[in-house]
Amino acid sequence: MSRRRLVVRQEDWPIAGTFTISRDSKTTAEVVVVEIHQDGRRGRGECVPYRRYGETRKGAVARIESLRAEIEDGALGRPALQRRLGPGAARNALDCALWDLDAKLSGIPAWRLAGLAEPQPAVTALTIGLDEPEAMAAAARKNRRRPLLKLKLGGDDGKDVLRTRAVRQAAPDAALIVDANEAWTPPTFAEYAGELAALGVELIEQPLPAGADGVLESRDRAVPVCADESAHDASTLGDVARLYDFVNIKLDKTGGLTEALRLADAARSAGVGVMLGCMVGTSLGMAPAALLVHAARFVDLDGPLLLARDRDPGLRYVGGAMHPPPPELWG
To answer: Residue 203: which H helix or E strand, with range?
Structure first.
């Protein structure tokens, strides 16, 4: 095998406006891109290091650079990478770049290399950031024809039901998911769940802080609940299966497509539903997750829709559906 060349860089992608969740706001998607070059081909991966998990771009780049010699010598393939780096953003970028490179070198699409069905267009949520009820209703009204909306909740002002009701009135035909990003307490969850069910909410994502969600072991609830911050890779599925109805699989948490495939298989075996999620990033960050749409009840791969601009070529979004990535983008 000829020698490989590793390229690592940081990129900033402006968000269209401000994106707010319960714990912070951001105006820029800060990503790390990995390229692995070999024999005139290039494999790419993108990650978004997340402060909630103690990650920074500087730290992610350092973890990737620590493996430069092994990568460029060709000694580090996907299986070895799983042993050398733990779950998280750095491994995600490297793992996805290796998948892409293997597809480019072999001429075999990544979905076929993974033994999966060919990805098809899938309805994806569009996320409406946390704001005043009127502002969230206005955003929903602009997107009322989309089949699936996801609402960021978790305000400490007691307005989360008002926010949901305002969105429901603005987009009466849309399916709704809400995401509190760990901001509620058990009494808040108990108070809100019935009202949200009456408003047609189909899923509540991570209502309680990770590690303080044991009360969810009781299955007496009006709306199914999905683990996000409480679930990372397959090793965390035991508690998830005991407490939650769904798990949100994000490649930046699993550490790439390789572990995401394992987690999806484990969730299916455990009877846990799958949601596909993402950080705010470009189409390059979403593309590998598109291989898993067959396994998911809910898809939330809308990162590029939140940006002021995206990569070219990027993913194609039509009528609320995300189409599979073109090979020029990934896979």
So the answer is: strand 201-205
CB 226 within 8 A of CB 244: yes
d(CA 63, CA 57): 10
Asked whether the predicted pLDDT for residue 222 surpasses 90, the reply is yes
Superfamily (CATH H level) for 122-322: Enolase-like C-terminal domain (3.20.20.120)
Q: Are 307 and 258 in contact (CB under 8 A)?
A: no
| Residues 32 and 64 sit within 8 Å (Cβ to Cβ) | yes
Q: Any idea how long the chain is? A: 331
Please, where are the H alpha helices in the chain? 57-65, 68-72, 78-84, 89-106, 110-113, 133-142, 160-170, 186-198, 237-243, 251-254, 257-270, 283-286
List the domain boundaries for the chain.
Answer: 5-113, 122-322
Catalytically active residues, by annotation:
152, 250
pLDDT band at residue 239 using 50, 70 and 90 as cut-offs: confident
The highest-level CATH class for domain 5-113 is: alpha beta
Q: What secondary structure does DSSP assign to 286-329, as a single string?
A: HGGGGGGGGG-SEE---GGGGBSS--SS---EETTEEPPPPTTT
Taking the model in full, what pTM does it have? 0.96
Find all residues with CB under 8 Å of 27, minimum gap 6, and list them: 14, 15, 17, 18, 19
